Amino acid sequence: MVGNRIWMGDLSGDRVLGFDRATFTADAAPISLHCGTQFPYVSNLTSVGSDLYVLCAATDGYLIRLDATTGAARGDKALVGAQPIAIAHAADGRLAVVNSTSGTLSMVTPGTSSMTVAKDVLVFQNSADLEDVRAFGQFLYVVSASTQTVIKVDATQATPKILDEVNVNPTSVTNANPTRVEVLDEDTAVVCDSGRGQIIGVQFGLKK
Known about the structure:
Number of strands: 19
Oligomer: single chain
Helix content: under 10%
Order of helices and strands: EEEEEEEEEEEEEEEEEEE
Number of helices: 0
Radius of gyration: 17 Å
Structural class: mainly beta
């Protein structure tokens, strides 16, 4: 949601559709993103200022920047990784993208007319099913469904650094599927486990 505009992504194709917020009237036609990859879909969107950033997910996934009011393209699409699933706006202005199937983090620096990508700058070991990323201050918080953990990352350096990792299913309960995280402060978060229908509290910095 940006100003008087609401944007929705297509889970079955590389398109976004805009709505007027006041009347909730949809635009006459969706906007094609022309991702140029096989079986693309829109996995996530976020707005920063007057820009709308759209993740076009596929084996080769792209980040696309649009005008948040008109939907017009702003520059070329940028390759970010395999199956990008979530995006967060970091405190330093960069965009953090987690790539689900490759288990990696890419950092994107928006410029006036283009975007510079540090692709797969951080690899999460044994994490081939990343689900979410959030930013809080200088830190990023990443949900890994395959390891059943939430990972705290320091994003201040050119190469981000893992600071802590908390297991949200320490007793290995079946059907657990952590998918979303909300950060309360830099050491506290809550995680949604869609498999068990639970909200789980997470405290970082408790390692001895």
